[in-house]
Specification:
Elements (H helix, E strand, L loop, with lengths): L3 H8 L7 E4 L5 H8 L6 E5 L2 H13 L6 E5 L13 E7 L1 H10 L9 E6 L3 H10 L2 E11 L2 E10 L7 H10 L1 H6 L2 H23 L4 H20 L5
Parallel strand pairs: 1-2, 1-4, 2-3, 4-5
Antiparallel strand pairs: 5-7, 6-7
Helix pairs in contact: 1-2, 4-5, 8-9
Bound molecules: S-adenosylmethionine.
């Protein structure tokens, strides 16, 4: 059975789209999406030998060799231009996902949708999207096995003009997640808040250098934003 996390990713693939799942590991996501009839074709990309073999084996076990092409290579280099309509990258840090997109930019020209599931640092993905002609069209947050995951869905487009403060909030929290303000969202940011407060406390005790001062300033700004979102009275 597919994890809830990957099911959310799968549910955001438009029906009939050709998919590239980058960093596919066991290729569970493309196998599921083909089996339930969401997609007719997928590329499963893996850069590491072990996971590449796991993906190959899984596709053979499921008898999906005709529909899923398992390829070994770094990031988007495994796809040729115009081969897919949609790219999913799940289960990695936001910075790694961003670098895969950045390094494979020319392959994105004909891609219509990105579905990204960062384990940490969704902010770096939102930053990259907004600077590269992509806009978020949906976001989801979910908890599974005591971990909280975010799924970001983007299509090409230009961002609306918004006040700087609002932009900063949306980059950190996600425009859709901010509006939904769900229980899982509150749980995630309450934990982040406690973590940042703990770090700030330690910095208060550290030597007062230019570096600690700027770190403290940055943390205080982030803490203020979270307190505002969680409606914590000071
Ligand atoms: N996408 C699956 C999921 O969400 O369950 C697997 C996630 S697994 C934690 C991350 C996978 O990404 C690893 O198998 C790793 O080998 C692969 N990976 C990391 N960097 C990559 C890159 N630049 N190109 C292709 N695959 C990469």
């Amino acid at each position: 059975k597919l994890s809830q996390r990957l099911e959310v990713v799968a549910n955001n693939i438009p029906k009939g789209f050709r998919l590239a799942d980058i960093g596919s590991d066991h290729a569970y996501l493309p196998c599921y999406a083909v089996k339930v009839g969401i997609i007719p074709f997928a590329v499963a990309g893996e850069v590491v030998e072990g996971p590449y073999h796991s993906a190959k084996r899984q596709v053979e076990i499921e008898g999906l060799q005709e529909q899923i092409s398992v390829r070994k290579g770094n990031g988007l280099e495994v796809i040729s231009s115009e081969e897919v309509d949609c790219i999913s990258i799940a289960g990695m840090g936001g910075a790694l996902i961003t670098s895969i997109l950045e390094d494979g930019k020319e392959k994105l020209e004909t891609v219509k949708r990105l579905i990204l599931q960062p384990n940490i640092s969704a902010i770096s993905i939102r930053n990259w999207l907004s600077q590269n002609g992509w806009v978020l069209i949906a976001e989801e947050i979910l908890e599974e096995d005591n971990k909280i995951y975010e799924v970001l869905v983007a299509e090409k487009g230009n961002p609306l003009n918004k006040p700087e403060k609002e932009l900063q909030m949306e980059l950190l929290f996600g425009p859709f997640l901010l509006k939904q303000n769900s229980a899982v969202f509150k749980k995630k940011w309450s934990a982040e808040l406690r973590n940042w407060q703990r770090i700030l406390n330690q910095l208060e005790k550290a030597a007062d250098t230019e570096e600690t001062r700027s770190k403290k300033h940055e943390l205080i700004e982030k803490i203020k934003m979270v307190e505002e979102v969680l409606e914590i009275e000071k």
